[in-house]
Design brief:
The protein has 128 residues and is of the alpha/beta class. The chain contains four helices and seven strands; from the N terminus they run βαβαββαβαββ. The chain has helices at residues 6-15, 27-33, 56-63, 79-89, and strands at 2-4, 20-23, 35-36, 40-41, 70-73, 95-98, 125-126. The strands form two sheets. It has a five-stranded parallel beta sheet. A two-stranded antiparallel sheet has the order 3-7. α4 (79-89) links the parallel β5 (70-73) and β6. It starts with a strand and ends with a strand.
Length: 128
């Protein structure tokens, strides 16, 4: 798996229109916190028990065939690593993780969105 900073991921997606952006956060995060434009929400884990989605790979395969580049983003760039490794383990050949994720790391006040991430970089996103 390769790792890209948010702006690098955005530029990669622009240069490779066949690539698919998978937002692996929960449906609630995707809808209410916001999400990158053009992303597809396939939760890696979700409530109420926050267990790993046993259908994750199959759901991603419905959106992106195994031979297309897949860029995976989450809140801070950690869940997307686990999700990306699972995709690779199951035959996806070109997987990229977005470092810092959508909201970036925690700051000294334990808030996100100030130190990095897709949204902080001013990349295209929307809130549903």
């Amino acid at each position: 798996m390769k790792h890209l900073k948010p702006r690098e991921a955005y530029e990669f997606l622009q240069k490779h229109p066949q690539a698919v952006l998978i937002d692996c956060r929960s449906e609630t995060e995707y809808l209410f916190v916001g999400h990158p434009l053009g992303s597809h929400n396939v939760a890696w884990n979700d409530g109420p028990d926050w267990g790993i989605n046993p259908h994750f790979v199959g759901q991603v395969a419905k959106v992106a065939s195994m031979d297309r580049p897949v860029v995976v983003i989450c809140r801070s760039g950690q869940r997307s690593v686990a999700a990306g490794l699972e995709l690779e383990k199951n035959g996806f050949s070109e997987v990229y993780n977005v470092l810092e994720g959508f909201e970036g790391p925690l700051d000294e006040r334990h808030h996100r969105g100030e130190l990095g991430g897709w949204r902080k970089e001013g990349l295209p996103w929307k809130q549903t």
